[in-house]
Amino acid sequence: MDEPAIKRPRTTGPTVHFKAMQLSWTSLALVGIDNHGKLSMLRISPSMGHTLDVNLALRHLLFLLEYCMVTGYDWWDILLHVQPAMVQSLVERLHEEYTRQKAALQQVLSTRILAMKASLCKLSPCTVTLVCDYHAKLFLIAISSTLKSLLRPHILNTPDKSPGDRLTEICAKITDVDIDKVMINLKTEEFVLDMNTLQALQQLLQWVGDFVLYLLASLPNQGAPLRPGHSFLRDGTSLGMLRELMVVIRIWGLLKPSCLPVYTATSDTQDSMSLLFRLLTKLWICCRDEGPTSEPDETLVDECCLLPSQLLIPSLDWLPVSDGLVSRLQPKQPLRLHFGKAPILPGSATTLQLDGLIRATGQPKIDHLRRLHLGAHPTEECKACTRCGCVTMLKSPNKTTAVKQWEQRWIKNCLCGGLWRRMPLSCP
Ligand SMILES: [Zn+2]
Ligand SMILES: [Zn+2]
Ligand SMILES: [Zn+2]
């Protein structure tokens, strides 16, 4: 054990002994309640106090992370032992192990590994901007699978593939930069949804539209210091997913124009979706899995440079600064906390760096999972993720089944796997 917190001299005060103790899943943390009702959490070193060679220590942590990835156990106690200098190599080696697995298993683990990487990256100032990217990737995967699950096969044919799979296949095959030419290859009757559902999806569709615009507008800055979203620019899988969603949104927009993402354009006649789809396709072709990779050509970069003069670039609401404790536990001093009181902690190096990049302190401005604005003084009760800081309303303002389905995903855990805590209502 490397935590001297409970070793107190016997002469002072009443004796303290633990009444109940419990080890965490991987035995790297011990929680105990003492006879005064105080709850203590102790960090237990994986080597039981023996000094390990760095490489051996890394391998040990990696093994435990993999164990949690496969079993589904929470890995918070492993994070207690990760030093900032270990983060990068742990993320890389975790990724290597993952790519070595069979495709079917990779599919199953695909979101858990993202959540794991996000929580690791949070521990080091060098990787903290990547947390937003992993989080956005989790969000994108969730939106994509939810929206695709809404498509229904036409009654007359019993297809061997779901409409969602066929959409993916067709979008991968038809590399045309013209959104309408990709669209005509699809059976549009599979996309018919009722009008209320389409309207209720608008905020999610808006996020997709905003995210595409944000990414393309940031392409010319590629060489600049790491900004959130950077890793998407060379990620063929995610860009392909966004491209598919643009096609779906285009079709839904034909059924109900008011569900389309709203863009603020300088010209009334501009077809913004078609412009963005063209640029997105060009960028996707540079890095998709199916073809040779290349650098984005100069015309594409030039066209992306022009975007801010054609469209208002949205400021994305990235993750708020989280007041989660794990990243502050690295200095090995004991920490005293009170139930129901927010800890007053010196900002760690990681938080400071994040502050420089992203706003978001104080009250949440947006429901991160519903993409609804909460207003300056939110009157709705919210819950926040204890791990990533994501905020969402406690009660659903929605009535349509499709959106209820979306919300069901987050009842127990956040997108990142973290647990929820209720947020106190702010007084204006
Ligand atoms: Zn987010
Ligand atoms: Zn979270
Ligand atoms: Zn979020």
UniProtKB/TrEMBL annotation:
Domain Mediator of RNA polymerase II transcription subunit 16 central helical bridge, residue spans: 64-252
Principal localisation: nucleus
Presence of the UniProt keyword Transcription in the record: yes
Annotated GO biological process: positive regulation of DNA-templated transcription
Highest taxon of source: Eukaryota
UniProt-annotated location(s): Nucleus
Domain Mediator complex subunit 16 C-terminal, residue spans: 359-421
Pfam families per UniProt: Med16_bridge, Med16_C
Keywords: Activator, Nucleus, Repeat, Transcription, Transcription regulation, WD repeat
Any one GO cellular component localisation term in the record: mediator complex
Keyword Metal-binding: no
PANTHER family assigned to the protein according to its UniProt record, in alphabetical order: MEDIATOR OF RNA POLYMERASE II TRANSCRIPTION SUBUNIT 16, THYROID HORMONE RECEPTOR-ASSOCIATED PROTEIN-RELATED
Membership in a protein family: Belongs to the Mediator complex subunit 16 family.
Name of the protein this chain belongs to: Mediator complex subunit 16
Organism of origin: Myotis myotis (Greater mouse-eared bat)
Taxonomic lineage of the native organism: Eukaryota, Metazoa, Chordata, Craniata, Vertebrata
